[in-house]
Amino acid sequence: MPNGVPAPVLDLSADEARRAILRAQGFLGADSRRGGAAAMLRRLSAVQLDTISVLARSHELVAYARLGPVGRAKVERAYWHDPATAFEYWCHAACIVPMADWPLYAFRRRAYRERRYRWHEVPPTIDKVLEQVRNDGPVTTTDLGGAKNGGPWWDWSDVKIAVEFLLDIGEVVCARRVGWRRVYDVAERVVPSDLLGRELSDAECISGLAGIAGRALGIATRADLADFIRVRGPHATLLDEALKDGSAGLVPVHVEGWGNGRVRASAAGPRQAAAGPARRAANAWADPAALAGAPRGRHRTTPLSPFDSLVWDRARTERVFGFTHRLEAYVPKDKRVHGYFTMPVLAGGKLIGRVDPAREGTTFVARQVGFEPAAGRGRAAHAAAVAAMADALWEAASWVGCDDVRVERVGVPDLAAPLESALRSIP
Predict the structure, then answer these.
(1) Which residues pair with 369 in a beta bridge?
(2) Pairing of the two strands 271-272 and 302-303
(3) Which ranges constitute the DSSP H helices of 177-291?
(4) A Pfam family this protein belongs to (predicted)?
(5) CA 248 to CA 242: how far, in whole Å?
(6) Beta-carbon count within 10 A of 294 CB
(7) Which end of the chain, N or C, is more open, meaning fewer C-beta atoms within 10 Å of its C-beta?
(8) 343-347 and 350-360: which strand pairing?
(9) Structure confidence at residue 274 (pLDDT)
């Protein structure tokens, strides 16, 4: 900063920020769909895993949402390839992450090793389990002697506790699954030697991951970045330092309506805020590529997994889209508002509603369909929202092999008949 003068902060309207985010996340324009699922994983940097499977597993839904009806086998091969191009580790949550990012998670491996505990106490048999993986790998927990003691999901056997801790500290790696079971092998047989031998400091890890998170999100608050890579305490302090000194490679911006700054009228495009007393404080960070030209191209129309990185952070989803959402799978059935596995529906760059899906044979069942008030008011806006919802339901149905769509309930009763008509007009 020459002469100690802070760099100008770029002003963005909320709509400009939203469009930049959609492009970075792969929902706007054709470029983001090039290269298939493998390239998509590299752009997103983390695809969350979850055990729930309704239409498909969440990691498959993430690829479908961006790429359209891509073959599910192709998606699986892109994630779990031989030789490994990705591995499972803790990022925002349990995620598939590119193998190239292995060195950046050294800070977390060290932290787990020092703590020697995550969800369970590490058993004394851990060295024996590591030796068994080294001698017999790749192996599943069944091969090692069992995953559970027979109780609830968290009632792990000592073998399962040991191998999962070995995964946490990087002695073993999961780079593929069989029947949703993790397959473990020792790191030296899975991770390329040039990556395995790179030992980065905590500060280098955090600055590198902050830059990756910023590129994946496009524009993000400090809280968004911390949530993406799940850091707190001393590691969150390192995040702050990486943002302040520029080592994360992100630039400060002010997004109108995102708080933490004085609001004034925004021009029709990004601009530099005036110097002096009128300067707005930065309230977010942007990947420079997200600011390089106005996002152009066609928007995706699609239902989203609730674990999709576009919506996995509930506070961010509400800030960017004005959309309040929570997963109700673990809420008692009689207390659910929107349904078991409610999927937000994206159309025209906005979240226009939500659907709670199910399957009955070859019929895609929409147990409940909701429309957002923000999707539009008036006859034309309602017609557009209904048409987009029908398109989203039919494309998703076709992708999972269904040849019919049935809607059981519509949250806005006046739109039930138009939606039924729109659905019947598509095939």
Answers:
(1) 355, 410
(2) unpaired
(3) 187-190, 193-196, 202-217, 222-229, 234-245
(4) AlkZ-like
(5) 5
(6) 11
(7) N
(8) antiparallel
(9) 43
Which amino acid, one-letter code, is at 17?
A: A
Q: Give the pLDDT score at 147.
A: 65
What is the token pair recorded at 128?
Answer: 């024996």
- The predicted pLDDT at position 375 comes to 60
What pLDDT is attached to residue 122?
A: 87
Type of residue at 368:
Q
Phi, psi of 297 (to 5 degrees): 120, -175
Beta bridge partners of 12: 255
Whole-Å CA distances, 14 to 26, 318, 407: 18, 12, 34
Contacts of residue 6, defined as CB under 8 A and 6 or more positions apart, other chains included, come to: none
Q: Which pLDDT value is given to residue 310?
A: 98
Structure tokens given for 249: 């490679």
Dihedral angle computed from the Cα positions of residues 90, 229, 216 and 101, in that order, rounded to the nearest 10 degrees: -60
pLDDT at 115: 87
Of 148, 145, 90, nearest in space to 120 by CA = 148
Return the closest-CA partner of residue 302 out of 363, 354, 234: 354
The sign one gets for the Cα dihedral 339, 400, 365, 352 is positive
Please tell me what DSSP assigns to residue 289: G
> What does the angle CA 147 – CA 150 – CA 156 come to, to the nearest 5 degrees?
40
The single residue listed with the structure tokens 């996995």 is 312
Q: Rounded to whole angstroms, how far apart are CA atoms 379 and 385?
A: 10
- pTM score, whole prediction: 0.90
Residue 91 has what pLDDT?
96
C-alpha angle with apex 322: 39 to 22, nearest 5 degrees? 20
- State the Cα–Cα distance between residues 53 and 66, nearest whole angstrom: 19
CA contacts within 13 A on the Cβ side of 426: 21
For the chain, what percent of residues have pLDDT higher than 70?
A: 91
SS3 state of residue 207 = helix
Distance CA 250, CA 244 (A): 9
pLDDT at residue 314 in the model: 95
Please identify every stretch of the chain with a pLDDT value under 50, giving residue numbers as ranges. 1-5, 153, 261-278
* Token representation of residue 416: 């039930």
